[in-house]
Amino acid sequence: MDRLQNFGFVLKDVSRLYIKRFEERAAVGLSMTLAQCKALVILFKNEGISQKRLSELSDIEPMTLVRILDRMEAEGYIERRADPADRRARTLFVTPKASPLLNQIWAVASATRNEILAGLSTEERNTLMSLLERVHENLLSLKPLADSAPTVSKKTAPR
User: Fold this and answer.
1) Pick among 3.40.50.150, 3.30.70.370, 2.10.109.10, 1.10.10.10: CATH of 16-118
2) Contact 51, 61 (CB under 8 A)
3) Which of 50, 115, 140, 153 sits most deeply, having the most CB atoms within 10 A of its CB?
């Protein structure tokens, strides 16, 4: 059997298991989900963006993101400010209070990463990241298919 046949399944399962482990650690140390951590980290790297743009960057549904942001705003980790270019819009910023939380998120991510990459040398870890980054670039460069239906060869039944 060709090992590459299972590429997508293995990739998805590695992602699922990583998320599960990260959330186990985050629940204990941070009382946060991966989505909450992701939103805060992406916002930290992109301060001044809109909720819509944060939703796009984080791949979090807008309604879910609103709840996450409402909670973080109530806890003093983010603030919404009026957009100077559009009086109807709001922009998002991280507050100084979020700094220790961001450090904790990075610590949870580091501990999780070290745990799941145990047994891989530094060179193997770097090779893994290089290969995944190339696969990621390939995926980003793909143009949408004209027909969204999957192309599966149909075998005709004998008559």
Assistant:
1) 1.10.10.10
2) no
3) 50
